[in-house]
Amino acid sequence: MATTRATWTYRDRFGDGFGRTYFRRFGPGVVSSVGLGTYLGDPTDAVDEAYERALIAGLEGGCNVIDTAVNYRCGRSERVVGRAIDGADVDRDAVVVATKGGFLPFDGERPADPAAYVRETFVENGPVDPADLVAGYHCIAPDAVEALLDRSLDALGLETVDCYYVHNPETQLRVRSRGDVYEELEATFERLERRVAAGDIGRYGVATWEAFRVPPEDDAHLSLPRVVERARAAAETVGRDETGFEAIQLPFNVHMADAFTVRAHEFEGERRSALAVAHELDLDVFTSASLGQGDLAGGLPPAVDAELTGDTPAQRALNFARSAPGVTCALVGASDPDHVAENVAAGTFDPLGARAFDAVFE
């Protein structure tokens, strides 16, 4: 697990090469504000090898955050992350590793009959109750999430992960009420609180696509304050003084700035944005889709681009994401070593100050 001493030592090793606030507080330690993502790419050996090289380059170049999930690239991404951490000239306890559970994974490749694979692997011979399965591939029930966590630890080859996310719980809203989803989240949070207490995970949270950035009238909305209330209740149930729910992940970029612009959550008598509420609740925020899955590497809207620093559009797009108030780290895909070097170098430029960031939206 990442430690205070090791992450600060990592910061001392690389910090002089970056701009102000490149390294930011995360728990008792620090993390780079550019993180390495592992979502995109085909489930092939060639892509595995490229990812491994790129992740090692990132870790050895000043980026100590890696984000993955049990289902990414048919389960291959977690295995590559484990190999990269083992192969990099960086201590394991200097690296913050995050993974997720919710989407049921394949094993290295897409099976000929995905539905049959899920049924045989996870339902008939596994932890998933058919009543908890949505869309044939998504389950956040306690037994399932705990089994997926164990699968992730095995794939990563690690004793602990630093942050574990329940993955896109809004998927359950396709067939369930919000009340039922909150109930299931609380039950799963109880399991995760126990795994925090046992030292298997450092902290946990929720990774979303829509849930926290859309307004209450949207079918995919979940209330961030209510989710945190459920986590606090789960901690109390298992006898912990404080909840281990400490982080959220959501999309944020120039074209998907809803987490800042949309007042999606009722909090303390008023409607506030996801980023504003996360700040008040002392949650770390990790942004996905910081480059719009590559689209923003080709250019940004001129008015926004003019306000940002960076040598390339990709760097300026990353600096937009990590300039948002309350953002701890902006995640970006890491399957190409040259792209990783370019993206990490975004951190050599200072982010926008609060006034300049606000001005982008005026």
TrEMBL record:
InterPro entries: AKR2_Oxidoreductase, NAD(P)_OxRdtase_dom_sf, NADP_OxRdtase_dom. It holds the Pfam family Aldo_ket_red. Signal peptide: none annotated. Residues 34-211 form the NADP-dependent oxidoreductase domain. Transmembrane segments: none annotated. It comes from the Archaea. PANTHER family: D-THREO-ALDOSE 1-DEHYDROGENASE (PTHR43312), NADP-DEPENDENT OXIDOREDUCTASE DOMAIN-CONTAINING PROTEIN (PTHR43312:SF1). This is Aldo/keto reductase. The lineage of its organism: Archaea, Methanobacteriati, Methanobacteriota, Stenosarchaea group, Halobacteria.
